[in-house]
Each structure stands twice: as structure tokens, then as C-alpha cells.
Design a protein that fits this description.
Blueprint lengths: L6 H25 L6 E6 L5 E6 H24 L5 H26 L17 H6 L5 H6 L25 E10 L1 H25 L7 H13 L3 E7 L2 E6 L5 E5 L4 E9 L1 H4 L3 E5 L2 E5 L3 E8 L4 E5 L4 H17 L9 E6 L1
Parallel strand pairs: 3-12, 9-11
Antiparallel strand pairs: 1-2, 3-4, 4-5, 5-6, 7-10, 8-9, 10-11
Helix pairs in contact: 1-2, 1-3, 2-3, 6-7
Length: about 350
């Protein structure tokens, strides 16, 4: 890891989180005399706005969300949060969340200056600002000191006996694991989106929802997809899928696996919590503690944290031994089945 982050860097990162709220206040102060009583907040596929909201409440909601994000971000950066990767991820996510209300405000207010009828305002090139708003989160990441990826030396916690398999016998194991961090993130994002869009629904009706609600829903679904994982081991190798949506996250055939070991997983060595990808390694890290590490034929490592990791390791080693005996690297036949785990 790098040295402790300096106070100057912390102040710069905190400044980037508060800058959107300040910009909201400044732009409103400069434009207030030119703005109509209502601001356009919804556009169709083309043409002028087809929905509007009262300027005062709309500004209040945008400012409130941006301020809330800045406050939370400041506490997370200044307070001793465990793990540099957690602070770095927090800085990026909250920076983007703080900036998005500013982008929404400018998109509605800037083209409305000097206009009396908000329904004549066209979105035009301002559409790009909303699309690029999440990129603001990269600014805190640039300021945050680089975190090195030290080499990992896997030390097996214990020797695991492989499952003994007769010729033609199949062993399988599976378990569902849950990421509390991503569950909390999904809840927070849902609450945030509800705070933004419910007032619009209550005052203007569902037909006046801003098109950005589609992007917001997709973001929530993307985060939710990593809340639950299904980890399976069978004659096809190791598979990790999204427990909610079923799409594959990681697949390793027996031919791609050199060995599997039980080990103590330290999130700091694997890039933090969640599904992490770093040079030479990837992992699903839900906590610090027991898990298994798979060494791949290309030298890369893949790790998963879970309870009783001896079970999947035993099955994987049994499959590998059977594959070596067969000499084809393709796993086992399907004449009989032996199930292990949940």
C-alpha cells in the first residue's frame, strides 16, 4: 500500500464533493431573475419539453441530494474508514452522486434562461451533460493516491483431502453467498432515486418522469446483480453466476485449474470488497476470513470468500485428480452423481 493520505489530498477530495452544491447555489443566484416559474424536467424522443416542475422545489431537491452526498462523503473520507480501497471507492461513487443533481439542474435551468414557457425548451446538446455526469466521480479518484497491488503469496490454511471418485462418477457442490455491502448500496441507491422521482410523480404525475429514470433503474439493477452469487463446482469446473439474474460472472473448466486451496482472504490484497479485478488476480470478496483460492493454468489467481471452503476445494481437487487419471482435462462422465454442500 502507499503511504497514508495527506491532509491536503483529503481536503481536495472533500472539496470536489462540495463543489457541485456550491455550483448549484451560485448558478441559481446568477440565473434566478431569468428563470420561469416552472422548469422543463422531461423531454420526449425529440422536440421541446413535455413536462415541467416548479422551479423552487426542483432546485431544493437537487440541492438537498447534493448536500447529503457531500456530507456523507466528507464523513467517510475524514473518518478512519477501514481500508484504502473502501475510501477510494467511496470518493468516486459519492463524487458522482453529488454531481448528478447539478447536471440535472443545469440541463433544465440553463436552456430556460429568458424563456417564459418551459414547454418550448429543447434539450439539445445539454443531453451530453447528463450522460457524462457520472464521470465526475473520476476526479476524486485522480486525486486519491494510487494503491499498489502487491504480489500475493497464497498460504494454504489446511490440507484438504480430495473427494474420492470412482470411474464415471460425478461430484457436485454449490452454495449461495450474499454481499451485505452491495445489498446496502442497492438500498441506498433505491432510496436516492425514490427521493428524486417520487416528488415528480406526486406533483406532476408518472407521465412527467424524466427520461433519466431509465438510467437510474439500470444502475440500481446493475448493483443489485452483485448482491447474491451462486458458486458451483461440478464436472464442468468452477462457475460463479449472479444469484438474482443468473448471468455468468466467472467460469473455469478443469483444464484451466491447476490447484485449489483453502486460505485466509484479506480484502486489502485483492483490491477491496465485492467483485474485484486486478492485474494477475480477481476475486469475490464479501468479508475478511476463510475462502478458497484457485490457481489457473495462465498463472492468474481467483478467490472467493465463504464459510466452510474445504467443501468446494475437496470437490475441485477430486475433479482434477479424476481428470488427470483420464488424461483429457475435460472433467468426468455422467453415469453417477455425488452431491456435496448446499
Amino acid at each position: 500500500m502507499t503511504a497514508r493520505m495527506s491532509t491536503t489530498r483529503k481536503l481536495f477530495i472533500v472539496f470536489t464533493m462540495w463543489l457541485p452544491a456550491v455550483a448549484l447555489i451560485v448558478t441559481r443566484s446568477l440565473w434566478i431573475a431569468e428563470l420561469p416559474a416552472e422548469l422543463p424536467t422531461h423531454w420526449g424522443a425529440s422536440g421541446p419539453a413535455d413536462g415541467a416542475s416548479a422551479a423552487g422545489p426542483f432546485f431544493g431537491w437537487m440541492l438537498g441530494i447534493s448536500l447529503a452526498a457531500a456530507i456523507v462523503g466528507t464523513v467517510m473520507i475524514v473518518a478512519p474508514v477501514r481500508g484504502k480501497w473502501v475510501q477510494r471507492a467511496t470518493a468516486g461513487v459519492i463524487g458522482a452522486v453529488a454531481f448528478y443533481p447539478l447536471a440535472m439542474w443545469i440541463t433544465s435551468a440553463a436552456p430556460s434562461r429568458g424563456v417564459t414557457d418551459p414547454y418550448t425548451v429543447e434539450l439539445g446538446a445539454w443531453f451530453a451533460l447528463l450522460m457524462l455526469a457520472p464521470a465526475y466521480g473520476l476526479l476524486p479518484l485522480v486525486i486519491y493516491p494510487k494503491i499498489d497491488n502487491p504480489a500475493i503469496e497464497v498460504v494454504a490454511d489446511a490440507e484438504v483431502e480430495p473427494v474420492e471418485l470412482e470411474p464415471g462418477e460425478v461430484a457436485s457442490w454449490s452454495r449461495t453467498i450474499v454481499s451485505k455491502m452491495f445489498v446496502i448500496m442497492t438500498i441506498l441507491l433505491t432510496v436516492l432515486q425514490a427521493a428524486i422521482y417520487i416528488p415528480v410523480i406526486m406533483t406532476e404525475g408518472i407521465s412527467h418522469l424524466h427520461w433519466s429514470v431509465i438510467v437510474a433503474v439500470l444502475v440500481v439493477l446493475l448493483v443489485a446483480a452483485f448482491c447474491v452469487y451462486r458458486v458451483s463446482v461440478d464436472w464442468r469446473g468452477l462457475r460463479v453466476t449472479s444469484g438474482l439474474f443468473g448471468f455468468p460472472i466467472k467460469r473455469l473448466s478443469p483444464a484451466q485449474i491447476v490447484k485449489a486451496e483453502v486460505a485466509e482472504i484479506n480484502p486489502g490484497e485483492w483490491g477491496g470488497w465485492g467483485y474485484r479485478i486486478a492485474p494477475g488476480r480477481s476475486a469475490i470478496v464479501l468479508k475478511q476470513g476463510p475462502g478458497f483460492v484457485v490457481t489457473q493454468a495462465n498463472g492468474k489467481l481467483f478467490a472467493v470468500t465463504l464459510e466452510r471452503p474445504e467443501e468446494p476445494v475437496s470437490v475441485m481437487q477430486g475433479l482434477l485428480d479424476a481428470s488427470k487419471r483420464r488424461g483429457d482435462g475435460k472433467g468426468l462422465g455422467t453415469n453417477a452423481t455425488s452431491e456435496v454442500g448446499e
